[in-house]
Amino acid sequence: MAGDAAAFVFSRLPHPDTAAAFVDAATGGSLSFGALRRAALSLASGLRLGLGLRRGDAVLILSPNSLLLPQVILGVLAAGGVAVVIAADATAAEISAAAHGAGAVMIVAAPEVAGKVAGVGVPLLLTSRSPDPRTLSAEELIEGGDPTALAAPEASDVAFVAYSSASKTVAMTHADLIAAAAGLSDEGRVCLASLPMCSVHGLPLLAIGLPAAGVTTVLVSPPSDPKAARDAVAAHGATDVVAAPEAAAVLAAPMPQDGKLSSLRRVIVAPAPLAAEARQEFRRRLPWVELTEMYGTPENETVRASEEVQMAPAQLGAPVLTQTDAAAVIQ
């Protein structure tokens, strides 16, 4: 088994690798599994050989979900860096505290949130190209990098640190990330994801687990109403949804039975469980959908899965990302 998380993902990509790994629902743009691998390795080369990133250096990543974000995360990991994340809507003070608390040597930020890091005093790399020729972006490093394998970090090296506000909430090694994703194998599935990738559960699941499982991940905004949620599932033929509790509950809101959720097989909720009433309503209205709730930190995580799943309206195969059918606590 690969010793670092990025190599693990790359070793599990489907063949041929031309299928979409990520789709941006807002723009219609997509990124294939092969392009994801080439981009991440090119960025890793640029970070190591061009910018001098060293093994164990912390890189704070600040961005909403985008097609560039998984390329950046896997590129940092492949370069031997530590991916440090904080919510894109964090305040400037929270970002500064996280950057200094983690000892970040660099911040990679989306242009729309880069203004909040101006006073941090840490070098900035934008995710996407800027019209200002004085700035550098990960996108340019990807285009100019050499996608050749670099010396891999050790499995015991810290790979991922997540901050909530200004407090560190989790730290995971490459081995931890691999263990969290190693049991997933669901090539050909389609997952709608509104959970932020820059979060405690978002990075291990969306940037590591789903690509390694061969799942096509469609990046969407949290649905604003039940109709929007159902339309998104139907438009992409989604078999899975990964969302925060509020967004997941919208799927089970009272609506006419129109068949738009018939492809759905599993909903994963994080970083907190559904409220008891919302869970009961979900089970009543979507009895064929497996509900998995993930909460706590990945090191001491509770996973509660549906105890019973009825026959789907139209059989599409086994549920994705199979877990135990009873509530389980994973240490």
UniProtKB/TrEMBL annotation:
<dbReference type="GO" id="GO:0016405">
    <property type="term" value="F:CoA-ligase activity"/>
</dbReference>
<keyword id="KW-0067">ATP-binding</keyword>
<dbReference type="InterPro" id="IPR042099">
    <property type="entry name" value="ANL_N_sf"/>
</dbReference>
<dbReference type="GO" id="GO:0005524">
    <property type="term" value="F:ATP binding"/>
</dbReference>
<dbReference type="InterPro" id="IPR000873">
    <property type="entry name" value="AMP-dep_synth/lig_dom"/>
</dbReference>
<feature type="domain" description="AMP-dependent synthetase/ligase">
    <location>
        <begin position="16"/>
        <end position="305"/>
    </location>
</feature>
<keyword id="KW-0436">Ligase</keyword>
<keyword id="KW-0547">Nucleotide-binding</keyword>
<protein>
    <recommendedName>
        <fullName>AMP-dependent synthetase/ligase domain-containing protein</fullName>
    </recommendedName>
</protein>
<dbReference type="Pfam" id="PF00501">
    <property type="entry name" value="AMP-binding"/>
</dbReference>
<dbReference type="GO" id="GO:0016878">
    <property type="term" value="F:acid-thiol ligase activity"/>
</dbReference>
